[in-house]
């Protein structure tokens, strides 16, 4: 059960779009549509922003969207705002009720 | 309002056991719709899934932690607990408890987290 691979950092200017990738294997991301994304601000607990690849919980802006192709899932943040600066983590179901996290991506709004 | 709250010692000695409890308020821990998870985050690092428990007591663990981890549930107190044996400095982390939707496999509700430091 290896961690999912995310780029350590990403950045964009206000109003721009940025996409963060999350690469797994055919044992997790590639076989299950149970990828979720979490936003974490410094000193805070993670917050769910995307579940089941592309669904948004109530209250999450539609600027956040998710997708998946083969073994790679992606989170896109459109119309970047200052408050989007945070760490983002992907997670995938890995079978037998186990989860695996990505290493996290620090998003900087320039 | 549904809340999860971690509690336990903030300092544990090297080679001893770490024990934390998560108290669930505002909902029943016996709801069959959820699993109850533990996740940790070493200072400055990413999240690591530790394991999960169903209200029946069925557990699943991260293989990387081997036999050091045990998660238990006390439905009468609406609590579930984490025990991690033989700790080292590498186990120093913020420990979070969270509720996982059984069907959607996502962590929809998290506790605030508690920092546990392993000292020599």
Task: Describe it.
- The complex is a heterodimer of chains A (110) and B (120).
- Chain A has 110 residues and is mainly beta.
- Helices cover 0% and strands 44% of the residues of chain A.
- Chain A is built from no helices and nine strands.
- Chain A has strands at residues 9-12, 18-23, 35-40, 47-50, 64-69, 72-77, 86-93, 99-101, 105-109.
- In chain A, strands 1, 3, 4, 7, 8 and 9 form a six-stranded mixed β-sheet that branches.
- In chain A, a hairpin with a 5-residue loop joins β7 and β8 (99-101).
- With 120 residues, chain B is mainly beta.
- Chain B contains no helices and eleven strands.
- In chain B, strands 2, 4, 5, 6, 9, 10 and 11 form a seven-stranded mixed β-sheet that branches. Chain B has a four-stranded antiparallel β-sheet with strand order 1-3-8-7, with no helix packed on it.
- In chain B, a hairpin with a 4-residue loop joins β7 and β8 (79-84).
- Chain B is globular, with a radius of gyration of 14 Å.
- The mean pLDDT of chain B is 95.
- Chains A and B meet through β7 and β8 of A and β4, β5, β9 and β10 of B.
Q: Structural class, from secondary structure content of chain A?
A: mainly beta
Radius of gyration of chain B: 14 Å
Shape of chain A: globular
- Structural class of the secondary elements of chain B? mainly beta
Number of strands of chain B: 11
What is the share of helical residues of chain A? under 10%
Features of this protein?
heterodimer, A: 110 residues, mainly beta, six-stranded mixed sheet, three-stranded antiparallel sheet, B: 120 residues, seven-stranded mixed sheet, four-stranded antiparallel sheet, 0% helix, globular
